[in-house]
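PROTEIN SPECIFICATION:
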Amino acid sequence: MTDGADIQAGRLNGAVLAENFADVHRPFDAAGAAVEASRCYFCYDAPCIGACPTGIDIPGFIRAIATGNLTGAARTILEENIMGGSCARVCPTEILCQGDCVRNGVGDRPVEIGLLQRHATDHLGGGGPHPFNRADDTGRSVAVVGAGPAGLACAHALARQGASVTVFEGRAKPGGLNEYGIAAYKVPDDFAQDEVAFITAIGGIEMRYGQALGRDLTLAQLRNDFDAVFLGLGQGGVRALDVPGAELDGVHNAVDYIADLRQADDLTTLPVGRRIVVIGGGNTAIDIAVQTKRLGAEDVTMVYRRGPEQMGATGHEQAFAQTNGVRIKHWLRPVRLEGEGGVRAAVFQGVELAADGALVDTGGEQAMPCDMVFKAVGQSFVPLAADGPDLTAGRIAVDESGRTSLSDVWAGGDCVAGEDLTVQAVQDGKVAAGAIADYLKNMGS
């Protein structure tokens, strides 16, 4: 068994940690990008476009790269997805654009669309003029709640059309999950903040931090003070692990630990256990498992109650975890966490699918010694006050334009039903901005 001394900071020195948390994706150089761009067939009816939630003209931007026009390639991307830089890094391209590439046949491989998109958007990262101009001020004002991908995309699109946008963010920094919730090796070197600076450089966007809806301001206030409101609230709640022992020391919410890791100035100060169990099967579970392994944990095991095909994490992410030394176990449900003061073991029950699709116990328990347990069993939307918009399935109900049951309030991103992906959040913000702009034009007419 383990003891409390097994949870300690500085398991690895700073040099090793810097290498472990460096950019996981090696970017293309100019020659590599040109070669990879030449592999594209530039399909007329390209399936990769339909697989991209934001509808980027993928053959168009790749053709621009192939002809050396990186500025044009970047503009093609950013016209549809202003957060194309982060999406190139964090999106599951293997099941989106690259998954639908026509070069997925036997003996072939898809075009590296994500890396090409990064190559193009990174070209604009060195400064210079903003690729888009702000229209003349319309005199209309919009409140955006949440500075995550949905809110930022909405704010940029509205500011570009001349509205004055005020973004209210509950935390000390903007970026949402890109800043607080994505593994550090996917968006290193303060990339999230650089991207926000690029987005807001268009002008007409005021950022206010430490302003949370329900704590520091109300929806009624915003509706009174602004012409329209967009809610990009994400999912602020964490689902409980309803088993005995969940309150023991050493048991953590994965999202909280990842946020602490992302904000740490010195990774050697983060305490990490020797034996770690992660409960869950989504991207957050993968991110916490791999990051604790890279922090110096000796043994990291992910445990999921169903099979690999049912995991929220893609096959690519599962394989990435395993190549990083993470063990993944399936068909086990948590029964209890054991220990006196601190967690010492996680106990699981074997399960299988019954004929009706329900999970049933197979008998017998399996105990895994551990000194840290991370709960990654999902997040949930925290409902607003009674005067908030209607909900459906626990999230904000919206129509195809993102409009809620309140005529001047729109919503998008993880707080509405749909795919919980950065690229989908950007699309939600973009679509809502178009509807809000039309609403503002028609006000008083």
The chain has three domains: 30-122, 141-236+381-442, 238-375.
